[in-house]
Here is the input.
Amino acid sequence: MKIQINIFFCLLFLNSFSQKYRDLAITPPMGWNTWNTFETSIDEKLIKETADIMVSSGMKDAGYTYIVLDDGWMTMERDKNGDLVPDPKKFPSGMKALIDYVHSKGLKFGLYNCAGIKTCAGYPGTRGYEYQDARFYAGLEIDFLKYDWCNTEGITAKEAYTTMSDALKKAGRPIVFSLCEWGDNQPWNWAEPVGNLWRISGDIYPCYDCEFKHDTWSSWGFFKIAEMHKNIRQFSGPDHWNDFDMMEVGNGMTFEEDKSHFALWCMLASPLIAGNDFRNMSKETLSILTNKELLSINQDTLGIQGFKYREEEELSIWFKPLQNGNWAVSFFNKSNKEIKIDFDWKKHHVIDDINNLETSFNTIKYDIRDVWQHKDLKSTKESFKAVLASHDVITLILKRK
Ligand code: GLA
Here is the structure.
């Protein structure tokens, strides 16, 4: 009897132990990251101001929660105990005080490191210090860790990321674990039990579909990233997301391109991590990032990654199944010219074979909501007609009657 009771409590403990690390990212994580705009030029003033604006601008109310410091927050050497050292010049009040400040605003806090010997920008990496660094992060009370893949010669990704995932759990604090190995080792095949999101590509570049060549690598326009891998949508879902990279909305593209970028990330159920400077964010940028109807597509609780249904000339049409039998659809104009859309719903039969969902507009009628114009349109009984400017997007939610 005594043994049975002990086993019962043991199982109960193990179950609540593992439960603690589950469901940390039940919908795609939303937040802000320093890298796209500031690279390693970061400091506590920038972070505090950004946290303040996250709240005062309505970003927090829209769902943006995480403030993540990317590469460049440490000094070049560990201390004599082997601990990482937040740069005292950039963070004179100390990292813990900054994290407490961000938490006091009702936000969450993230840091960056790398599975290699050094980070991509040359700061101390975590290789060989996994458990020590995990304890360090838990002590600081962070909520999110982005973990990169530079300087990793001789180690395998699955093992390296699993070690860090185990170390984080051992340290005892639930921390969203964001894998950043650029899709090189197909993390979608193995990372579901390891982390909550994984990058599927090299770095993003603020352009529509360009390739920007560096000496040994390239960064990519958002449409290139969206179409880089054909068959990985079945691997993404609640608590384990394909991550299409931090956003470049507000970083120099046209308004139409920013809208398309955001719509695509919503259709793809990608994590939505803003990468612009909040301190001089335009009204247009804010209106894109906080468009609640678009966000409802991204945050839909089914957590299904949308897909390209078809491309006619350079009109790219994407669908995403939503809860309650609804669908989102986006029309992207990839060309340099205006496109006239005349979409006769009745001629279309949309199939999501991975999730066993389909809809035939011949038999099922939907109400249409234009989520950029915030307007109800006519139903799917009639053809949808519109004129779409170059690189612009139309996104509709089809509501089942
Ligand atoms: C890599 C990552 C980027 C960023 C930089 C930091 O390139 O993919 O997102 O974290 O490193 O050095």
